[in-house]
């Protein structure tokens, strides 16, 4: 009996260590699925230690799935780390501002930094800024990214809508070139429809919205808003 109790304690300790590793920043590239699978495997061992039978194994696997997934109560800490890294990465040139709305991050880039007037081609300085952002996004793959293009009201509404869409796509292309998974990134152009200031220069901007993907502990799947 004492040996069994000691085994259970050891396996529990191992489960907690592996669960922590599954969600540590240096393991994020593996994604939620691997973390969940690892947790389920440890849980299966735990089930054998507890139940010594198949039923115990299945129960343990369920426990492991919860341990290995990205739990909702860890989202805040995950986004805290990403927010700080993103602020640090973009602080050097002050070409973008970062603000947080609950667990959603919004990085706003000055369009003059990214593009020449009436152009959808990212300037070299803009590429450098986006590369810094991409390095952070690559370390936090359990997020979705939406690139939003905005223009001022000069020119026709139709033209501005098209320009904002092309600029959003150009930003996505740079992020993808830096290794960001294109399946994570969506784009949308708002043209002149969402001004934030009476100053036209402030309205010419690109906003990158970063939203966490929350794992469903019951099924091992992930959920979050779709764009």
From TrEMBL:
<dbReference type="InterPro" id="IPR036737">
    <property type="entry name" value="OmpA-like_sf"/>
</dbReference>
<dbReference type="GO" id="GO:0009279">
    <property type="term" value="C:cell outer membrane"/>
</dbReference>
<feature type="signal peptide">
    <location>
        <begin position="1"/>
        <end position="24"/>
    </location>
</feature>
<dbReference type="InterPro" id="IPR006665">
    <property type="entry name" value="OmpA-like"/>
</dbReference>
<keyword id="KW-0998">Cell outer membrane</keyword>
<feature type="domain" description="OmpA-like">
    <location>
        <begin position="102"/>
        <end position="214"/>
    </location>
</feature>
<dbReference type="Pfam" id="PF00691">
    <property type="entry name" value="OmpA"/>
</dbReference>
<dbReference type="Pfam" id="PF13488">
    <property type="entry name" value="Gly-zipper_Omp"/>
</dbReference>
<dbReference type="InterPro" id="IPR039567">
    <property type="entry name" value="Gly-zipper"/>
</dbReference>
<keyword id="KW-0732">Signal</keyword>
<dbReference type="InterPro" id="IPR050330">
    <property type="entry name" value="Bact_OuterMem_StrucFunc"/>
</dbReference>
<dbReference type="InterPro" id="IPR006664">
    <property type="entry name" value="OMP_bac"/>
</dbReference>
<keyword id="KW-0472">Membrane</keyword>
<protein>
    <submittedName>
        <fullName>OmpA/MotB domain protein</fullName>
    </submittedName>
</protein>
